[in-house]
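TASK: fixed-backbone design
INPUT:
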């Protein structure tokens, strides 16, 4: 597993959230416990890319590889720098993170400001995946953070916020974003080592189109909001594996939080949704295509925001505070070696029979 994570860190490739094709189909070294095994499985699919391609095809818009790069950004932000990473968290630290136990969380609390990828999966930036930062977080708060990031990414994608803009200084600079949103975005980069970062540094340190990469990040967040591992919506349909499958306008009942989830159960419902293989009217693909057309048509944020508020992030009146979700809670055998652990192939029947939670 140490060889595997060394390769992972050097490549700085994507990890989670509607699985991404990260390391190709070549066999990888076997993970040593169920939690690590769950992470390992996330490297064998390209669901985000496929969803994005479907949305662009449905919208009748040409897809750029820079958008695909942006779709991958949320899982492994390019600002993950090898120097700070090597100094802040060694291989043993990474392995401990995968246990998601009390020791890992203690380490995380000291390291997350220097490791953006961990912030997005376990820390304060889980909104990049339409998830809450912690159990008990109010649904309106998670929704607000998601919408604020979407606004920031969309305005970068339209060129309203340029590549040389200092992100921490957004709180002081004139911008079309309202003051609370500027202050919030700025606060994400208040750590001393991040205060000099420009928008270009955040999204795209190398070559390519910054604007298209930012729009890819925008799409990733929306796509993740339709993953049953990330968000519980009022579902009418279920897949053969027991995972809920959503329509574009299904209201949100609860945001999940990754800490406390079993990684294999998370991966199970983070795999390809049925509407990706078999298109149906009103699926999330319709909402995504509408957003792609809006961006291609250069619609202002004031026109895009209602699409997100009224459909993608529509909260149910009885929406509940965040939690891992009863269907996804970590099992007692989560640290067992793969050869002795039982790997789930479907959501447990008792969970399904008791209602999708």
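OUTPUT:
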């Amino acid at each position: 597993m140490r060889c595997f994570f060394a390769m992972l860190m050097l490549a700085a490739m994507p990890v989670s959230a509607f699985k991404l094709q990260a390391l190709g189909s070549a066999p990888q070294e076997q993970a040593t416990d169920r939690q690590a095994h769950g992470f390992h499985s996330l490297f064998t699919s390209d669901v985000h890319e496929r969803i994005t391609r479907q949305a662009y095809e449905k919208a009748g818009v040409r897809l750029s590889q820079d958008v695909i790069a942006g779709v991958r950004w949320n899982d492994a932000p390019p600002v993950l720098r090898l120097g700070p990473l090597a100094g802040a968290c060694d291989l043993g630290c990474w392995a401990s993170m995968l246990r998601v136990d009390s020791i890992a969380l203690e380490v995380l609390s000291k390291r997350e400001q220097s490791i953006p990828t961990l912030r997005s999966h376990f820390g304060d930036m889980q909104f990049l995946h339409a998830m809450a930062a912690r159990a008990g977080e109010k649904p309106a708060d998670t929704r607000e953070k998601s919408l604020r990031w979407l606004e920031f990414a969309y305005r970068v994608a339209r060129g309203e916020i340029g590549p040389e803009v200092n992100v921490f200084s957004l709180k002081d600079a004139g911008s079309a974003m309202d003051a609370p949103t500027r202050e919030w975005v700025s606060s994400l980069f208040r750590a001393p080592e991040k205060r000099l970062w420009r928008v270009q540094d955040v999204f795209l340190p190398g070559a390519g189109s910054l604007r298209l990469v930012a729009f890819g990040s925008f799409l990733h967040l929306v796509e993740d909001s339709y993953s049953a591992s990330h968000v519980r919506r009022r579902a009418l349909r279920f897949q053969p594996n027991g995972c809920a499958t959503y329509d574009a306008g299904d209201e949100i009942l609860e945001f999940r939080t990754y800490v406390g989830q079993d990684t294999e159960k998370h991966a199970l419902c983070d795999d390809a949704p049925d509407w990706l293989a078999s298109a149906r009217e009103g699926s999330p693909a319709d909402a995504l295509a509408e957003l792609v057309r809006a961006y291609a048509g250069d619609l202002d944020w004031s026109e895009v925001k209602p699409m997100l508020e009224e459909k993608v992030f529509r909260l149910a009146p009885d929406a509940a505070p965040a939690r891992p979700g009863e269907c996804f809670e970590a099992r007692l055998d989560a640290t067992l070696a793969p050869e002795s652990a039982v790997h789930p192939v479907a959501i447990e029947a008792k969970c399904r029979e008791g209602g999708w939670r």
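COMMENT: The chain is about 45% helix and 5% strand.
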